[in-house]
Amino acid sequence: MQVMLKKRIIPCLDIKEGRTVKGINFVDIRDAGDPVELAIRYVEEGADELVFLDITATVENRKTLASLVERIAVEINIPFTVGGGINSVEDVGVLINAGADKVSVNSSAVRSPGLIRKIAGEFGSQCVVVAIDTRFFNNEWIVYVDGGRTPTPLHTVAWAEKAERLGAGEILLTSMNTDGTKSGFSTGITADVSKRLNIPVIASGGAGTPEHFREVFLMTSCSAALAASIFHFKEISIPELKKYLSDNNINVRC
């Protein structure tokens, strides 16, 4: 008998200068609140995991804010993924010691794919989330780095497959075309990636309504769906979303 794993709902804290922020299509950034206060609220509301992304660490050529990670980690009891500015196994060790359960690598993994294998070898594949920022451009889904600023020659599905081979335990797939638009997830590329991999895929970019979550879970094999602004600004609460999904026969954790 096949066991159907429960779908996960994951809020995301995009961090800039110590504050939670949110943009549209990776630009037009606005303040969304104190990250520690938001993290506490999400645990209370029943979030399954929490993602923390220091969105300017790479382009500012600095490390992730480990002290802020530590302040959040002591307040929560759910799996905690941290990313931004990670370039070495040593960087990962700092964040794990600060309380992260998993790390998210993006630009550094594209530029040095062997980093995925090194982190997996040191901490286990379950610790390695490869984040992929992708944009539909010239009729192709292309991988971008540097917080969505720089296109690469990589095609999204092929890069996701390579990341899995190198030891990634999970893929965080963000559609730049829909990010922050609240127009719905990019189900086509999410379906293409999730059906080709044997590791969990987190859908990200475009959540605006409970129906969008239902749609991405029905139309793709993704394991989780991530959102930011709709949770930050209380447009949808996590309990309300989970009830809607459960009422619509989507297997979620209550």
Protein described:
By secondary structure, this protein is an alpha/beta fold. It has a single domain, classed as Aldolase class I (TIM Barrel), CATH 3.20.20.70. The chain has helices spanning 35-45, 66-73, 89-98, 107-111, 114-123, 156-166, 187-196, 210-219, 229-232, 238-247, and strands at residues 8-16, 19-24, 27-33, 50-54, 80-83, 102-105, 128-137, 140-145, 150-155, 170-175, 201-204, 224-227. The chain has an 8-stranded parallel barrel with strand order 1-4-5-6-7-10-11-12, surrounded by 6 helices. Strand 10 (170-175), helix 7 and strand 11 form a beta-alpha-beta unit. Helix 2 packs parallel to helix 3 (89-98) and helix 6 runs parallel beside helix 7. The mean pLDDT is 92.
